[in-house]
Fold these 2 entries.
Entry 1:
Amino acid sequence: MNPPIHSILKEYWGYSEFRPLQEDIIHSALAGNDTLALLPTGSGKSVCYQVPAMAMDGICLVISPLIALMKDQVQQLRNKGISALAIHTGMSYKEVMKTMELAVNERVKLLYVSPERLQTKLFREFLPEMNVSLVAVDEAHCVSQWGYDFRPSYLQISSLREYLPEVPMLALTASATPLVREDIVTQLKLKNARVISGSFDREGLSYSCFEEPNKLNKLTNILTQVQGTGIVYCKSRKKTVEVCRHLNEQGLPAIFYHAGLDQETRHERQQLWTSNQARIMVSTNAFGMGIDKADVRTVVHFDVPDCMENYYQEAGRAGRDRKKAYAVLLYNPAEFASMLEQVEKKFPDLETIRKVYQSVADFLQIPSGAGEGNTYDFDLGRFCTNFGIDRVVAINALQILQSEGYCALNESVFLPPKVQFISDRGWLQEFQRLYPQYEEPVKSLLRNYEGLFTYPVSINESYLSRSWRKEREEVKEILQALHRHGIIRYEPLKDQPQFTLLAERVRAEYLRVNMNVVQERKKLALDRAAKMKQYVESRECRSVFIGKYFGDEKIQPCGICDNCLAKNRRRVATGTITKDILKLLSASPLSPTEIKQQLTYECDDNSLWNALDFLLAEERVIAEEDGLFRLK
């Protein structure tokens, strides 16, 4: 008999109680129901499938969009003593084989898989032999054409139903509008789905927006006044560097992070920030997903986000410990026009899409009728420079072509360096005798890594650098020398986009694209941009605005956002003015101009008339025909 879920939570996570709705979602999954769970950022979505995975026999198959996120989740589970593995781009055939064999033999409780892997022949061969008890789809909004981060590969997930018709599916997301919810249920073919949605109220989190001509000064003031860990989101890589430099010049310890940094640097900076060795992270939206840090006190958006979904996800990384935290958005009106320009770039016309396709084929020298299934290193920056194509236009044109089944661009791929010994052991011994300077590196490789004579094995060059007491560049030179001597096959690190042809290359004029869908998505993006502008300029409670956007009609005013605080101040001010007006009118009737002149402080016309309207409504004063007000 499997242990009860509360015992599992206590044993592996150290908690005695579940957070709101976690238990409902877990019971739904254990009962065999298809379930769509909407939990706000920081509500503990991963526990909702990890706990039932431990309570059920067999394996939980987790479909996740980001390699870095998968690796973090797997490591966290292993640290808890839970067996977990991941299959993703960058693994060799033999590494995938070994992982699948462990899964088939039920040596794994959670198997993380990228959506692209679901359609591979190897995965499909092993799938029928796996005892899958639950399928969890993380970041489920990616499956929706109308979601804010559409991933065409997510549409392949529903094909699992052919192999696992009776296995319950749990789809999880932090932010989905009613339209996106319906689309998730449809695209994943959820049967009689239970939809469990939490409130979008974030206890202790204060939202605010400031129109600022000098954002750097305002940012400095915010981070000086609010102590503790913070994140500053910028839209461009260049700006993260500039803002980070400014903060350091002001004595505020900050580091920057973006997708242009190599994998190891990103990991090191993430560790510095999560361990509080660096207080402020200045980043693009490449940072944050899957970060488990509860004590973030401030999230500042230096630029206006594209949509409410992105804003809510990123702002919600503040105050997960439910203590007072601040989500601040800085803006100037010119940014809204720029947002509309970006939407135009994200949804190029058919002529532009065909131009990008043809340019990629020329860049990679792929002849017509060839290339199906092939993957190519793709230097996106050099491609855009060589062909004079805007980066945003290129990426989005290729995403549209991916949804049509022509090609795929994986921007976040990370292929670690690999080594395989290709010499026989006799020549290896002779080589070490002839070249004694390489004896210790060879022995170190053989001591630290298994299977080097069988297949390529991923290595950690930073670890070797520390172990050999050499700079990382020297380690690479030694590995390259061993490669030249025919001792090993060395595959250096690859940390650049990969372009895959899903179908043989065709002539650009033969491309067929459903432009009606493209135009519908463009209209939705324009609507989202307009909603973002409306949020920034709104005088409504910001939590209420966000809640209504995501379909939470029961959400109550937070009382702590900038608009609620301003409303409270106005209410106090009106109370003071009404009291003083009554005192003045007790002596004699007065006109509004005379009242304003006799008040002992500055009072604008709007505040004065708010007070007079209130007194009229309460029937405490009367407005005479001659324009004078007197006590009733």
Note: The chain has a mean pLDDT of 89.
Entry 2:
Amino acid sequence: MPHETKLLALIAVGFATAMLLGFIAARLRLPPLLGYLVAGIAVGPFTPGFVADASLASELAEIGVILLMFGVGLHFSLDTLKQVRKIALPGAVAQIAVATAIGAALAWWWGWNIAAGLVFGLAMSVASTVVLLRALEQRQELDTQDGRIAVGWLVVEDLAMVLALVFLPALAAATQGEALRTGDIVQSLMLTAFKVAMFFAFMLVVGRRVVPWLLGQIANTGSRELFTLAVLAIALGIAYGSAALFDVSFALGAFFGGVVLAESELSHQAAENSLPLQDAFAVLFFVSVGMLFDPSVIIERPLDLLGVMFVILVGKSLAACVIVMAFGYTSRTALTISASLAQIGEFSFILVALGVSLNLLPPEGRDLILAGALLSITLNPFAFSTVAPLSRWIDEHPRVQRLLSLGRKPIDPLPPEVSTAHLHDHAIIVGYGRVGSVVGEALAAQGLEFVAIESNHRLVELLRGQKVTVVFGNATAHGVLDAARIDKARLLVIATPDGLYTRRILELARRRNPSIAVVVRTHSAGEYDYLIRQGVDRVVMGELELALEMTDYALQRLGVSEARSKLVVQWLRTEGMSGTSGGEAHGKKEFHSGDTDVPEGNAGTTQERP
């Protein structure tokens, strides 16, 4: 078969198989990445049927790595990291160290050398950002405190792996056979660090000025295809130039190119235009990784694979849980971070591929990592499903809580000098973030008493300094709602977007105070309908409230009276929005032009804050 035909066959069969298996994975509520890896196994040399050209796949995969790393740099957010740096930075570094040490010890037990153990451990220490973001989005936790910590944690992990990709060639150059010479390692690492520093200096002085300016000049031409070509040329050009001039890896060059371009006002357009090619070559990268996997490792080395799964699912997750709880966070936050890290993905593949190519890692190490990735990504949804029950169990056992937090005494739900015994007919606000704090400020401005429940201990300390009555802890934990005097409260405001968390709070609150009025925040139409069926007094869905506010404005601007407009909005809220999750409204009441009475309470009006 001619070389050109092999290339066409690889792209056609690879894309078609990846699309089919990725679709099946998505329908099973698994990350499509899992389907792409299985597609690679299907067209690889270790399974019957069509066998793609592995050498061509690796060449295309290199482009995939460059564009993948360019995208990571383009979306790199220092702001996200700054928000959670006090926990994410030390926590991620400590977790990487622990996971790498456990993995290296496992490799040493198998008889591998120190270099192989280091690469093996590093590959298991880093989680997949793609899998994490999808899991958080599915659970509507991306914008929560737990979600921000998890994303910041992954940002630190990605940075650590970028540095690892830089120094692995230096480690390989200093390795002779099975022996590692300390002097050669130090010398090689120092030389590499100098080259990287020179590259960074060049990019900071020249790149951050030239690249945005060049992209701006091309954008001024108004040509979309030329702009897309420029973005790809910058990504591939910086990656190749960094390797040719500074002996820096393609991955680091592409990553830093993305970081530099992210400072441009055109970064969002650059990301949008490069995304289709980035996705396409990333799929080929995952397919090529799957082609290298030998499924026989599952049968031939089942105990070794169990060891790998133990490190991924238990070792590094337990380390993360202990670290987060030792910083004073709740068990729920700690377990959410642990579940987020209980898988491995794209950086693990890049590391093991580089490790094998540099003869630092034996091929069976790559097979074990790939098998661990397939299994851990598949099991990750189940890891998240254990967060709520495990959190409740830990909270009900103080000794376990003390052990996991390394003996640190938990923050008291209420400080000794604060008492809620006098409260009666007050409000309880669960979650004092962007939404809950607005409610709290409005209540305080009217002289109304309320108690906040918050699990972010730094926010709790800040609020207590402002003389806000706040109970620290998870609202579903034993005694937290009682500390807020749920039995005497008149109103419960649940300002957290987590649906499962909300359901549990609602169950506990009504068990202690059946007559309490409840207002709940949600982002899901299905959750909206469920809460309405449960008799919640008011459910606020962000997208719905935006639509109603815009409807109110549009009607009034088009000549409809204010009273009439408010009536329409109220009708939409109470009657017209029933059954939204099913795609159509069930039991809608028709709105007639003669219905002019504004419903009692005038719930559609927008009140100004005092």
Note: Residues 578-610 have pLDDT under 50 and may be disordered.
